[in-house]
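Figure 3 (text version): structure tokens given as input.
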């Protein structure tokens, strides 16, 4: 390798190190990913609360027995119609508890990774890395750069993971969440009215209620898939990709002086 190309390579590495350190000090993506995580937690919490509200209405309805009048003979329990939805909401609540726990865990780890300790550590490692590029020969210099890459991973991996997740969420998932959230909110309001007006029951009441339950079940199933995808599956996928990238850097031989 010519001296000119060697110098250019060292210069590129040095500039990259400086830019990474500056990005850490000025918290380039920290505010964005923290706001996105906060909004995700709030949205998940609101949907969870709505589900529990529907569950409470269903429990109330299960104690209500209706005299169906001349069109339908005998007595009928609304709870029988709502029972499949009740079972699904119990499972949905469990999954949303996992989702909220994962989101709060990510939030805590984001705060830790953005702590001043890691910023100062990254700055110190950045200075050592630039020195290694220009003055430390062979494997010792490579070891310093690899340790710098590890610190960069600790500092930025979660933020990058959340940022990538937010892009996918905004492009493909957020609209679905909004749509199905509106549907279950509407179902909750209608179910409350149905229970209040349950003394005036005709055959159409049960058919209408069954259709509402079917639509609500579909919405809850969609929300289960979307929240598992955006809060657990995609973050794990992006984190695995970043970890794989760091492993490649660790195993590679970075071309510096004397390597």
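Below: residues designed for each position.
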């Amino acid at each position: 390798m010519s001296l000119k190309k060697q110098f250019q390579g060292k210069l590129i590495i040095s500039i990259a190190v400086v830019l990474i350190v500056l990005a850490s000090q000025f918290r380039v993506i920290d505010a964005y990913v923290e706001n996105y995580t906060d909004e995700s937690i709030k949205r998940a919490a609101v949907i969870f609360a709505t589900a529990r509200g529907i569950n409470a209405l269903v429990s109330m309805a299960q104690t209500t027995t209706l005299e169906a009048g001349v069109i339908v003979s005998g007595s009928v329990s609304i709870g029988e119609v709502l029972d499949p939805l009740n079972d699904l909401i119990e499972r949905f609540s469990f999954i949303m508890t996992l989702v909220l726990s994962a989101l709060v865990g990510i939030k805590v780890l984001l705060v830790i990774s953005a702590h001043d300790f890691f910023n100062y550590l990254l700055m110190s490692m950045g200075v050592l890395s630039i020195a290694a590029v220009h003055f430390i020969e062979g494997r010792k210099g490579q070891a310093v750069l690899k340790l710098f890459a590890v610190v960069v991973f600790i500092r930025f991996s979660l933020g990058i993971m959340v940022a990538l997740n937010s892009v996918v969420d905004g492009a493909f998932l957020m609209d679905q969440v909004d749509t199905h959230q509106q549907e279950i909110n509407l179902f909750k309001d209608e179910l409350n009215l149905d229970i209040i007006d349950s003394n005036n029951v005709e055959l159409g009441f049960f058919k209408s209620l069954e259709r509402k339950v079917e639509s609500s079940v579909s919405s809850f199933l969609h929300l289960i898939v979307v929240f598992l995808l955006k809060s657990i599956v995609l973050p794990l996928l992006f984190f695995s990709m970043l970890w794989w990238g760091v492993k490649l850097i660790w195993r590679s031989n970075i071309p510096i002086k004397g390597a």
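The chain has a mean pLDDT of 86.
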